[in-house]
Amino acid sequence: MPESGLVTRLTNLFPQLEHMAPDLQERLATGKTVQARSGSFLFGVGDLCSSFLLLLEGSVRVYLSSVEGREISLYRIEPGQTCLLTTSCLMGQTHYPAIGRAESDIKGIALSNRAFNELIVKSPEFRELVFNDFGSRLAIMLRLMQEVSFQKLDLRLGQFLLGNDLSKITHQEIALELGTVREIISRLLKQFQLEGLVKLHRNRIEILDRIALSKRSS
């Protein structure tokens, strides 16, 4: 892609960058184009962070994993978004505390540590992008911690069902999102079915009474 085309694509996805000085926009375009296939690991626990990714295509899931194999999703990165942990690691010169994995084929622009620091200092627009996204994702993380720490799993499951596409989903996938094991999710879903809230199909869940499920999950 020509450099001007790349700058246009970046500013379309990251509107804050549209008003950057032209020379700093060119600095963005010097970033390395990176691509990864679905399922690829982008970083793991203990990895050193050496670049800042501006995602153009695809989706990345950031999650924690226990030695027993249990997982809990922290957040996802979509085109036009940045990674909270990457920002934290670059600013603090620390290692990644979680795992980042491509959920689909991805493409992006990776800014070197040096370019990231230069743009943070010289560009108010880039600085606004980074710290606004950092703040919003930190709020999501804190809310997740509160839910995991203080909210019963059946309530979290009900809220998950109400807020997500259930047309193609497995009990294992739900368990990974909520940080538990498949057997517990299956047991709770069967209870929801007995209560007339949902109907379970193979790799699909149908909500029968959304109002009742919402009351059950509040």
Describe the structure.
With 218 residues, the protein is α+β, with helices and mostly antiparallel strands. It has nine helices and nine strands. The chain has a four-stranded antiparallel β-sheet with strand order 2-6-4-5. Helix 1 packs across helix 2.
Index terms:
alpha+beta; 218 residues; elongated; 4-stranded antiparallel beta sheet; 3-stranded antiparallel beta sheet
- Provide a count of the helices: 9
What's the helix-strand series? HHEEEEEHEEHHHHHEEH
Number of strands: 9
Overall radius of gyration: 20 Å
Main pleated-sheet profile: 4 strands, antiparallel
Spatial sequence of strands, sheet with the most strands? 2-6-4-5
Share of helix among residues? 40-55%
- Classification by helices and strands: alpha+beta
Low-pLDDT ranges: none
The mean pLDDT is 90
Proportion of residues in extended strands: 15-25%
Summarize the structure.
This protein has 218 residues and is of the alpha+beta class. Helices cover 48% and strands 22% of the residues.
List the helices and strands and how they pair.
Blueprint: H1 3-13, H2 22-29, E1 32-36, E2 41-43, E3 51-57, E4 60-65, E5 71-77, H3 84-92, E6 99-102, E7 106-112, H4 113-122, H5 124-150, H6 153-163, H7 171-178, H8 182-194, E8 198-201, E9 204-207, H9 210-216
Antiparallel strand pairs: 1-7, 2-6, 3-7, 4-5, 4-6, 8-9
